[in-house]
Write a structure and sequence with these properties.
Elements lengths: L11 H27 L2 H25 L5 H19 L6 H22 L3
Helix pairs in contact: 1-2, 1-4, 2-3, 3-4
Length: 120
């Protein structure tokens, strides 16, 4: 039994998901910086996906760390944002930065989908 005011430790799965979210967040931020130097219309569509994913992964990891009662719903939304971002990044297969970002987003989406289905 836990004492009042203390939180139960995070499960290994939740810790891994937080880490995947932070990695995806970092990769999105780095990819945004790279896209800013490219310019052009296609990059603007990718930029929107990167911005959404970056914010969603940061918020999702924050909510998991503070054990928010909305974590499952946020994880489901985060998985969707990560899927959309990975798809946008894949539209430029010659850009290695975007390919690394897509990989991180896919991993995060998979882990978030697992967390969205888990009982918290």
């Amino acid at each position: 039994m836990t004492q009042p005011g203390t939180m139960t430790p995070m499960s290994k799965e939740m810790q891994d998901c937080v880490e995947a979210c932070m990695t995806a967040h970092t990769m999105c931020e780095e990819a945004m910086s790279s896209c800013m130097h490219m310019g052009g219309q296609p990059q603007m569509q990718i930029m929107r996906a990167l911005m959404d994913c970056s914010e969603m992964t940061r918020m999702c990891s924050d909510m998991m760390m503070r054990r928010s009662p909305m974590t499952q719903e946020m994880c489901a939304m985060c998985a969707k944002a990560c899927d959309m971002c990975a798809e946008a990044c894949m539209s430029m297969p010659d850009d290695q930065q975007l390919m690394r970002c897509a990989e991180a987003c896919r991993r995060c989406a998979e882990m978030c989908r697992t967390m969205a289905g888990a009982r918290m």
